[in-house]
Amino acid sequence: MIGVTPPAYDPAAPESATILPVGTPATVRGYVRVLLRRHRGAFWLLLAVNTGAVLASMVGPYLLGGLVQDVSSGAQELHVGRTVALFAVALAVQTVLVREVRLRGAVLGERMLADLREDFLVRSVGLPPGVLERAGTGDLLSRITTDIDRLSSAMREAVPQLSIGVVWVGLLLGALTVTAPELGLAVLIALPGLLIACRWYFRRAPGAYRSEAAGYAAVAAALTETVDAGRTIEAHRLGDRRVALSEQRIQEWVGWERYTLWLRTVLFPAVNGTYTVITGSVLMLGGVFVLEGWMTVGQLTTGALLAQMLVEPVGMILRWYDELQIAQVSLARLVGVREIEPDVGDGAVEPDGREVAADQVRFGYQAGSDVLHEVSLRVAPGTRVALVGPSGAGKSTLGRLLAGIYAPRTGEVTLGGARLAEMPAERVRRHVALVNQEHHVFTGSLRDNLLLARTTARDAELWSALAAVDADGWARGLDAGLDTEVGSGGLALTPAQAQQIALARLVLADPHTLVLDEATSLLDPRAARHLERSLARVLEGRTVVAIAHRLHTAHDADVIAVVADGRINELGSHAELVAADGAYAALWRSWQQ
Amino acid sequence: MQIRDLPYPDPGRPDVRSGRHLLIWLGRNQLAGQIKATLWGLLHMAAVASFPIPVGLAVQAVVDRSGTRLALAGGLMALLGALSAFGDAMVHRAVVTNWITAAARIQQLLARKTAELGAALTQRVAAGEVVTVSTGDVEKISWFVEALSRFTAALLTTIGVCVALVVYQPALGGVVAMGVPALALAVLPLLPRATRRADEQREKAGRATELASDTVAGLRVLRGIGGEELFLTRYRRASQEVRVAAVRSARMWALIAAVQVVLPGLLLIGVVWYGAGLAHEGRIGVGELVTVYSAVTFLLFPLQQFEEIAQAYSFSRPSAQRAARVLALRRTEPAVGAEEAAGAWHGQPLGGDLYDPASGLAAPEGRLTAVVCGDPDAAGRLAERLGGHAAAEEPDTAGKEPSVLLGGVPLDEVPLAVARAAVLVQDKDPVLLSGSLAELLAVPCSGAVPVARALAAAQCADVLEALARSAPRSDGAPPDPMSATITERGRSLSGGQRQRLALARSLVTDPEVLVLDEPTSAVDSHTEARIAEGVRDLRSGRTTVVLTSSPLLLDRADRVVFVRDGRAVATGTHRELLGGAAGYRAVVTRQTEAEHQMAGPAPRCVPARDRPEGGTGDAAVRAERKPDPAREDSEQIEESA
């Protein structure tokens, strides 16, 4: 087999466009510089102990060279005792420093890694709500799990090991030149071959390893999905197809394994050959020089032993350089989040009053195709407005504009006369909150799950918030009360309980306007009815815009807006709309059977 | 096995008695690969180990001022260099092949096991274990498989070098031969603790990742309500804990590294001390001293393999144990040898009325039957029963309840695949598998229902539009939604969109009997009304059972069965039951009984079997309505859209 071409299918190629940006090389470089500058103390310390360790390791070859010289020149007194003592001291120093190098390397790597993951989360939680709504959290999630994971070994090992390797090689070459400058020449002979091979390899390797890793991840992902969808797969008799899919994934992955194996099949002999050439040329050239009387046997021995020592650091550099190349892609994905424009909040804009209004609003997710067309709606403080209409009509989009999550393309959405789009998210949410079907229970204590809405709240306030949504009953029954661990890994809450937690958060956050995006539709009817009582209490005294899938929600509203094709077609109270006998009235009759 | 021939046509039957058995089974299946890797490893190491010989020869030649012998040493060196480079590449290829074939084999076994277990797996704790084996354990097991041959080669080489040294230079070689075992074993006592610390670190890192992904998953809540700082603080704490644990673990590995420096160093000092004396007395040549010195330096290399195999084994043993446990799982159900046990089934196609003796629920052939069940969990269980071969959580409770009958044939007794083909149960939470929309809808089916018709019946027009926007564009042609990618579990779609696609998939299948559990719970009323029409039209003449409490669906069913406490208590049309069956109105509409009493006469309980089909319902309620408002309403909705 001469040569393997890379497989045609690349599992690392993005299937759908990456939603969040990926960092440009300049951003990545800039970030790495900042990171190194932040930890320059630890970095220099690592280099210092490393230099010491390498110097100590070179004592052995020097001493042996000296001995060889003495023996071969027939010296009377060998001073073996002194040599051994020096050797022992050097060994002690080397032992201590090698331990330090490993430790300092880990300390540096771990600090940079911790910084990196914390920086990323800081950036992520600062993302504008509109970006999150549009991009979803899937992309962020894969960045914080897969990419951080991939970077871990790179940061933990590659950066320290590479610095160690480079210093080591430099010192060895220096020592070789000091011992016998002529031998430096011998090393140069081996260099071109190595450079050519490395160039060939590093052009292909990073991309190939990325594909290989993605291919392997796809093997596991296919299986995970089969496990997750067990019922569906059995019901639809898809078992055989899933097996076939898994095998197809294995084949795709193995194709990349085969390619990277070929890359190494070329690189390894080249590197091995280099070692042989270095040692060989040092000995042969050096031997000739000694025979010619240009240098001594001792110098030759020391030089040959030093040249042999090059094997380890060169291998180290090659190995970790590989890793660093792969890590760079992950780093770019993490750093990319920094390129998203943060909220452009105008500190000066403050609402005056509580009226929420949309005025001639147009909005679309993509240029050239608007979802909302000149929608105007005025919601007086304390009233309840229900938005009803078929899927895809624009109800949810309108709700998000009223909650300040998206900014209108033209027209304006105002709260108390001030434009929502000009306020930072932190200010908007003091006044308006969007409540959707997503009622995430965070991993952690029940207290943390409530505190997020009002971080200064005392336990008594938390309990009264729970009481307000009828949740204090089961909450008091918990063994550890507010300290009970909930969420994944902790106590699993029922969907109804999770929804109550979400409502209790609203009680604590206390915004005067709520946008409800079918907050109870995913629940079973009995739980929903129970929750509606809790919800009703939360809604008391607030302005409410409810996006309703179920008509009974609409029935109780002060004003019902029927949204169709991005426009408000009917607007009025339940009685008015039923009397008008339009689409709403028709639906109401059918539902009310 | 060449890796280009993977995957295996048949991964074989693993020995799952224990983790050790599984490892042995894997090893036996790639015996040739292991032997090959060991032989190449021997060649490589022997060549590297022999390198000190030409080095010593060269030095000695120079000392003796012999140019010829220097050239000879150079030639030997070139030969050994070529051998070692070739051997290294080949041993690498061989061990990586062993790694890959082992990993591929286990992954294939897992895929087959998972497909075999199907629905039974989701109910077990084992589901998480399967994923753990696939994502983490396979690599650890394969690591051991890979390291094994390298270790064998290292062991043989080490012994060989020691023996050769003793023969070559008995005095100096003896010192080395005595020192090496100590070197090999010295770090072993440190390994368990180092591994433990590494595990602690991994556990903490896992926890931190979990916190981070949890925070990101709930980010919209955080951004909408607040509390970012609270969660950042929490994460920072976890992240710093990881850092501390990692440094603690590194401390141990640093100690091991130091031991690996000091012990060989001491041996080297011994060699120099003793050897220098010997050389000075003229008992050995200078070149021999250099050779022994280089040989000791070389021995560090195979010694590392000793450490690696110890680590690989300690990591892979629990992994192999778990893999064996997962691969030993079986579907527990009464009819395992169903083919023979199928007394009532003689291979003819299944059909006819569906009847559940346990609840008394009957769904006549060719009709649309709606089932109202007060308790959603009970509805889920009922739906599962209707499909036969229910994957019971407790193996011993299975089989106690009599099987559902389809045309008089007990479904539990026909082969699983036949039962699933006859009755399709779409549960409350159907999963959309990732892939293109075309792949999603390419399920085994009768072929009678075109994809476009199913999509239209399930009201998927807006889903198609949304998907078309994300579909790959080919030049000029309009984007095709069928080629758009659906991400895992359809997360890129809304709950309602997912539900409608799943419904379309079930409609395409076109089974003899279709059971739908709450198929429209996340769909708005407008769309739900249209779906009800669409499903009724598309399934006309076929048996369909819908478990729901939505009046929009119930109103369009041929008959409605009200199930309470696991028994069918009333049967009739939606409007009949509204007036007649106790508790029915409360479940179906949001009115309480008290409100209803004010609106109309008190409900009468109508026993299911006593009622003639299509009998009059509650006249008082009906009198307020137009003769057939349901049809008109839907027409009006069509117009308004």
Automatic annotation (TrEMBL), chain A:
InterPro entries (alphabetical): AAA+_ATPase (IPR003593), ABC1_TM_dom (IPR011527), ABC1_TM_sf (IPR036640), ABC_transporter-like_ATP-bd (IPR003439), P-loop_NTPase (IPR027417), Type_1_exporter (IPR039421)
Membrane topology: Multi-pass membrane protein
Leader sequence segment: none
Keyword S-adenosyl-L-methionine applies: no
GO cellular component annotations of the record: plasma membrane
Domain ABC transporter stretches: 356-590
Protein known as: ABC transporter ATP-binding protein
Origin species: Streptomyces palmae
UniProtKB/TrEMBL annotation, chain B:
Cellular compartments annotated: Cell membrane
Transmembrane portions of the chain: 37-59, 71-91, 147-168, 174-192, 253-276
Cellular component GO terms, alphabetical: plasma membrane
A Pfam short name: ABC_tran
Keyword ATP-binding: yes
Classification via InterPro entries: ABC1_TM_dom (IPR011527), ABC1_TM_sf (IPR036640), ABC_transporter-like_ATP-bd (IPR003439), ABC_transporter-like_CS (IPR017871), P-loop_NTPase (IPR027417), Type_1_exporter (IPR039421)
Membrane topology value: Multi-pass membrane protein
PANTHER family assigned to the protein according to its UniProt record, in alphabetical order: ATP-BINDING CASSETTE SUB-FAMILY B MEMBER 10, MITOCHONDRIAL, ATP-DEPENDENT PERMEASE MDL1, MITOCHONDRIAL
Record's protein name: ABC transporter ATP-binding protein
Organism of provenance: Streptomyces palmae
Source lineage: Bacteria, Bacillati, Actinomycetota, Actinomycetes, Kitasatosporales
